[in-house]
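tool_call predict_complex ligand=NDP
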Amino acid sequence: MIYIILCLILCGVVFYKSTIYKRHRRSLWNKHVAITGGSSGIGKAFAILAAKEGAHVTLLARNVDRLEEARNEIKQNTVTQDQIISKVPVDVSCPEAVENNLLEIEETIGPVYMLVNCAGFAVCGKLEDLSERDIKALVDVNLMGTIYAIRAVLPKFKKRREGIIVMTSSAVGLMGMFGYSVYSACKFALRGLAESLVMELKPYNVTVTLALPPDTDTPGFENENKSKPKETKLMSESGGLYKPEVVAKQLLEDALKGNFFSYVGLESFILTTLCVGMTSVNSVLELLLQICLLGPLRLIGTYYIKNFEKIVAKCFSENHVQEK
Ligand SMILES: NC(=O)C1=CN([C@@H]2O[C@H](COP(=O)(O)OP(=O)(O)OC[C@H]3O[C@@H](n4cnc5c(N)ncnc54)[C@H](OP(=O)(O)O)[C@@H]3O)[C@@H](O)[C@H]2O)C=CC1
Ligand SMILES: CCCCCCCCCCCCCCCC(=O)[C@@H](N)CO
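tool_result ok
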């Protein structure tokens, strides 16, 4: 009882404090923001917000037509005449191309201040149903693509003693899920990358933010739904479906404040708190909240996991009946 009361008081204090005590929010005014995957979905929504903040924005993606279309849309959201919105056709899974193109745009527009890694995609399906080609592409784009882009800007970030790195993982970068095996593995890997980089970059005043979105209503999501197993659909629904603008807005705020995790929604809050692990501590209040919540949240998590297991069992027996 005392424990519950203590938790409630703490939640109240944290909520109250969070409204009056805001972490310093850096400005993007006249800064250069490079966004991989900036021509669609979450990346494009982020680009629009960055343009509204007065940033110069460079979009990196493969398809030239979609890049041009997005560039026009983003141009309409600029707040000054001098903002440069440019596009670079590049495949992030090619390290030389990423490095050369980033070098080139830095020469024309100026040093990148913020790198947002949004290029990525999901292919769902049971592991044995994924083609070797899909598996390789998932790793090459979601994981390697992020590594290559970061490597290309990092030395300059360190030299200038400033910079913001954003990586887009996923809710399934914190928990495995039926049908997401390889995709989830890539997104888990990003967390290891992000945590290590936080340690490497702290002395250089460079921050790292890891986005953990649940399902988000984007062209990519629409595409992935075509091959999504029933089990995956039923489970992922419990995380809700968010608009890319909402995910991008939260991500921008977290990145500007240097928060490590960025998430939206109650389920993702539960998941993120439960999976806090060995990430660095942001504030004493946050730490106290985690100390109180971790135990009870394991119980709530168990409820979800049991439900997920039920879904798997139900679909299994349905398929079994069909086979017969
Ligand atoms: N939508 C969702 O439900 C969720 C998405 N995420 C993650 O968020 C990120 C963005 O997803 P979302 O907005 O839905 O995706 P979209 O498919 O809408 O957009 C993906 C963007 O990445 C670009 N891209 C894809 N492959 C490459 C490549 N090899 N090289 C360069 N650019 C590439 C695409 O352009 P082009 O094809 O022209 O190259 C496009 O601009 C992904 O990493 C995804 O895994 C995470 C959680 C949930
Ligand atoms: C322990 C407490 C548990 C709380 C419940 C957690 C429910 C989370 C649901 C996660 C949904 C996963 C969406 C994957 C998104 C994604 O990456 C793809 N759509 C990519 O395009």
